[in-house]
Sequence to fold (296 residues):
Amino acid sequence: MKLWSILGNSQKLDGGAMFGNAPRALWERWATVDEANRIDLACRALLASPIEGKTVLFETGIGAFFPPALRERYGVVEPHHVLLDSLDEAGFRHEDIDVVVLSHLHFDHAGGLLAAWREGESPCLLFPNATFVVGQAHWQRALQPHPRDRASFIPELPGLLEASGRLELVDGDWSQALGRSVRFHHSDGHTPGLLLAEIVGPDLVQGEAHGGVVFCADLIPGRPWVHVPITMGYDRNAELLIDEKRAFLQDKLARDVHLFFTHDPGCALARVVRDDKGRFGTTHEHAELRARAMAA
Fold:
């Protein structure tokens, strides 16, 4: 199996919102801030092939579905669909993807499912040959969003996914589409039913899989958020998220599972470490993956 980091459209969002109750004096050490108080964010997907004989894309980034006014509001940098270009550079087209795994349906993670905006045209779903894997609990949230995060969803997307006839809702740790090769961890701190997909590693130690890769989604958007107390203002329940993150990192450290970051502009993959004070951090950082062997 080989892995690629696939960049989608980049984004700029308010640094204070991205770092929750952490003061700017702290978080500006970790990010470059512009005159509007915004920081640079990647929207990075993970491509893996083959998994169970399939080509699998974990998330699709924000894409280019917004009309110009909303693209400006949400800090989307490029007007064209960067994800499609990045797939092409890796030797793939969106038609080649067999499975798209979506941690959740917020627009900065699922917007890349849609074709680029064109005036007068309705949203159009890409990936015509893919099964779309979404968590059952999160699907219910997307159908009936809370006023706090309603703006984070694309209203037309659930209907398009359902109409495709290729939607699989996951209610446990495994999916039909990916069998025992991808294990799902579950989180509710950022949004109900967040799926954290772990590509199961090749090594077994006392019956536990070691050496895999996990897509951290918005539980841990990038390296600064590996520090357990750091959360986002967008998280629905910061205290719950902190507890979930601590348990998640302890497990990944114990099993040497690598962390894949979607929003970190400078790092795609890293190993988790813990210092003598119990603070988590990262090492063996990789800015990008290009046909990287899973076990390498």
